[in-house]
Structure formats: C-alpha cells, structure tokens
Design a protein that fits this description.
The chain is of the alpha/beta class. The protein has 22 helices and eleven strands. The longest helix has 25 residues.
Length: about 525
C-alpha cells in the first residue's frame, strides 16, 4: 500500500506544529551580546535612528559606552555604530513597522525558520518527491541546533532562509523551458543570495556553487538565461556588500571584527585553524564534525548513503552549496561549536535532504511496496529516538526562564542607583543598558586602536582616565565584576588606583573612593562584584 501523493496531507500539520513550537519557545528575554544588539538595531531603524546608538559619554569620555554589539566609531561624537551587517536588523525593523509593535521583532526568526522548512520541502519536491520532502522537514525542524536558533534572535536562520529560497528558485529556473521565466526565477534567486550577504557575508559563497551547478545542469552552457540572470543579480548583491563594507567598515573586505574596528590583531581564517589552535580556540574542522555528529548522530550514515545513491545533479547541488557554506567555518578562528554551532545552519536543510533521501532509498529496497509508509514511520522513529526533541525543548524552556530571571534581576540591581549612574561591566553590561536604562562603559571596547596607525595606550591608562573623568564631574560609577578572573584584570587595576570598602554582600558591593584626599569630596565609585561566567 502506498500513501496518496498529496504534499499537504501530512506536511501542513507538520508545519503548523513547527511554527507553534518555534513561537511557543521563542526567547523573549535577552541575555545580551549579538542578539540584543540586533533587537536594539531593529528598534533604532524602525524609529528612524539608523544603525547608530547615542550616549553623550562617548563624546566627553571616550568611545566605550553602549552595547557590546556597537563598537564602530565613524566620527567624533556621542554615536557608536552596529558591528554587524544590516540585513537582519532591517527585517526586524520592517516587522515592527508593519505590526506597529516592538514585540513583532521576536516573531521574525520563527517565521523565517518556517520559511526554511517550506523551502526545504519545495527543494525536495523538485529534486526527489514529496515524501522525501516531508521527511527532510521533520528531520530539520527538530534538529537541536536548528531548533535552538529558530527560537532566538540571531542572524543565522534568516541567512539560511534566504539562501535556501535562492537555491529553490535557481533549481526551478534550470528546469523551465521558457527563457523569460528562467531568467526571472534566476534573477530572484540571485536577489535572495545577494540579500543573504547583507545578513551574513559568507552566504555569498553559495553563488559560485550554484553557478557551477547551473553550468553542469545546462551541459556547460553558462550563458543559459537562468545562469546569466542569476550571475547579474548575485554579482550586484556582492558588489553592494563590498561597497557597504568600504563605506561602513573602512575597507572592501573589512568587517566589524577586523583590527581597526575590534583590536583583534590576528587572521580570522587560516588553514592551520582546521586541525590546530587559534587565538579564539581553533580546531574548527574537528569542531564542525563534532557538531554535525552531535546533531544528526547516526543519521549521518543515511546522509552519506543518500548522497551516493541520489541523481548526480542533485548530489552536486547539495555537496557544492553545503560545502561552500561550511568550508569557511572549518578554518575559522572561532570553532563552530556551542553558541557558534549556528555557523553551520545554512547547510542543515541540505544535510536533512541527504538524510531523507538515504532513508527513502533504504526503505525502498527493504519494502518497495510500502516505501511511503515505511519512510513516514522510519523518519518519525528517527526524530523520536535519535533527535529526542523533548530534550531540546526542556533545555529551551530552561534557557527562557533563566533569561527572564536575569532580566528581572537587573531592575533590583539598579534600584538604589541614580538614573545618571555609569556601570563598568562585561557579561552584564548589555542587560544593564537594555533593561536597566543605564549608561554602560563596556571596557572590552578599549581594545580598539586609538590612532590611525593602529597604536593605543595601555588599557589601564585608558580605563583610569575614563573613571577619573566620570568621578571628577560627580557621576556615580559602578563596576560589575561579572567575570572571574576579570577581563584584563580590571578588578586588580581598580584596586590599585582606588580605595575599596565593602558596601553590601549579596551581591558583593564595594564602595570605592579616590586615593587622593586633598581634592575635596568626590562622588563615590562603587564596585559591584557579581560573580558570573566568563565570555569573550
């Protein structure tokens, strides 16, 4: 017996379940870092403020005040600019404008995760059949890393959605006999891949991989209308990214992480990082393999089998595009593991397709008359036994509870501090700014070069100068000792230059006064020792 070949019979309930899961476990409270910078940037854009944030202390003290994700200084004054490309914040801003509420930003990633699932089905339907598509969607949406970032405001799922939409459109463009339709679909595909580059720059590498597939599919006719139209739009998108980099970051290949913008004085990509250390961890090829093995487990076996048994054109597409998107992160200084496992997400739909086809091939050989039903059952069991989605959902629920508690605790933390207080902080700095409404001296920004030649004064000199200026004008200053040991031994630096005495114990608070006593009474500088986990 074969199930009726109706794509929406079982797909629609699966998509509804997926969307309910994504929205139900969405991370509404933020823990800081990139995700908070994205949300804040979306709000700024929706309010017509561009990619900048403003703090008067940046003009009078130095360019250190704001969120961790705002580290660029384009001109003297109170403004710092977003570290990241604008593609994702623009989507967040659009959602807020259309829905007329800031909360709409939190629904963007779940909706784009759903779009990724739909595009996965569409690609499978075009390359294989609807049941392979259903299996691929089921495997994708419950993969732990995909589920984690389908419920959190990071840019990786949006980039994945645009990449996969571009892949689907490009494949369909190759298969139409109408030249105008092929050119139109190819142009749309190029537009999608081009925009993905404004979300995550590495996404542009899908372009050459797709052109190679188109060249092979059209029997080495690179001038086919689909290929030509795609190349033009993808090329324009790539040129747009390069121009944006030149204007915004200061160089054609510059980013928010290059030395002049971050102080990171080492290469971000190196072949030595694949199997060896880097300043940020390294062993990235090994980490990528471990991440894929952790997420897909034994399903990697049918993935390899699927790639070996599917039509050659499909295998070239999946391996070419997936490999182009994964390869850079296998030699990246920051290994794709833990929070950085998200780097591999653009390849997950393609890998899920390979797994689904491999399972289909296996059950088709074992039970050819019941292939559809057997694939349905096998996929369901694989999700339940190997992916164990309830484990991921429990972890996400705990994540959301913890972040909600952290956000609420900030109000208690600042309750006795004046509105004009300045906090020196690292791990908790973004929370103090976003939820507490306080000015935050994010001293990690002091790693940026001060001068055009790339030189800087020592952090100790820059830090004490900033603190002295704040205290001299009577601004209450607080230091949150939220990493152990503190970054650059900031706690020790402050103890050398200021007098500390216990203010409260839970969390530990130390009131700090200037050592010089002949200058009259100076507004106290308070040290809050909040013991937390180190994060770079």
């Amino acid at each position: 017996m074969r199930l009726p070949a109706q794509p929406f019979g079982l797909l629609l309930p699966l998509l509804v379940l997926s969307l309910m899961t994504f929205l139900g476990y969405t991370q509404w409270a933020l823990d800081g870092w990139d995700s908070m910078a994205y949300i804040y940037a979306g709000r700024q854009l929706a309010n017509g403020q561009g990619l900048a944030m403003t703090d008067p202390n940046n003009a009078s003290i130095g360019p250190y005040f704001g969120l961790s994700g705002y580290r660029l200084r384009r001109e003297p004054g109170p403004r710092l600019y977003l570290t990241f490309p604008p593609g994702f914040p623009l989507l967040l801003a659009l959602a807020q404008v259309l829905a007329d509420t800031p909360d709409a930003a939190f629904a963007v990633v779940p909706l784009l995760a759903l779009l990724t699932a739909v595009a996965t089905f569409a690609l499978a339907k075009t390359l294989f059949d609807v049941w392979v598509g259903w299996a691929a969607v089921a495997l994708l949406v419950f993969t732990p890393t995909f589920l984690t970032f389908a419920t959190a405001p990071w840019s990786d799922v949006p980039a994945t959605a645009f990449i996969l939409a571009g892949v689907v459109l490009f494949v369909k463009a190759q298969r139409t006999n109408l030249a105008r339709r092929a050119a139109f679909l190819g142009a749309l595909a190029g537009l999608c891949i081009g925009y993905s580059g404004f979300t995550r720059t590495v996404s542009l590498l899908a372009g050459p991989a797709l052109l190679a597939y188109g060249w092979y599919y059209q029997r080495r006719q690179i001038t086919h209308p689909a290929n030509s139209a795609f190349a033009v739009l993808w090329g324009l998108g790539t040129l747009g990214v390069l121009i944006f980099n030149r204007v915004y970051y200061g160089g054609w290949l510059a980013s928010g992480y290059t030395f002049e913008n971050s102080g990171y004085n080492w290469p971000f990509f190196s072949l030595s990082y694949a199997l060896g250390p880097s300043p940020a961890g390294g062993y990235s090829l090994i980490a990528a393999a471990q991440t894929l093995a952790r997420d897909f487990s034994l399903l990697l076996v049918p993935a390899v089998l699927g790639l070996g048994t599917m039509p050659r054109q499909a295998a070239i597409l999946l391996v070419g595009v997936g490999g182009a998107l994964v390869a850079p992160y296998s030699i990246y200084a920051f290994a794709p593991t833990g929070i950085n496992a998200r780097f591999l997400l653009p390849a997950y739909p393609l890998l899920a397709l390979a797994v689904a086809y491999g399972l289909s091939w296996i059950v088709g050989r074992l039970a050819p008359c019941y292939r559809d039903m057997a694939l349905l059952v096998t996929t369901t069991l694989s999700v339940l036994v190997l992916l164990q989605p309830w484990t991921s959902l429990e972890r996400l629920a705990e994540r959301n509870r913890n972040y909600a508690r952290m956000a609420a605790s900030i109000q208690e933390l600042i309750a006795d501090t004046p509105p004009d207080a300045v906090f020196l902080a690292y791990s908790l700095g973004d929370l103090l700014f976003f939820y507490g409404g306080r000015s935050v001296l994010y001293y990690r920004h002091m790693s940026r070069p001060e001068r055009p030649d790339g030189s800087s004064r020592p952090v100790e000199e820059r830090l004490t100068e900033a603190v002295d200026k704040l205290l001299a004008r009577g601004t209450p200053v607080y230091f949150v000792d939220d990493t152990q040991p503190s970054l650059w031994n900031v706690s020790s630096i402050l103890r050398r230059h200021y007098q500390l005495r216990l203010y409260r114990t839970d969390p530990p608070i130390y009131q700090v006064e200037r050592l010089a006593s002949g200058e009259g009474r100076i507004a106290p500088f308070t040290l809050l020792g909040f013991i937390g986990s180190s994060r770079s």
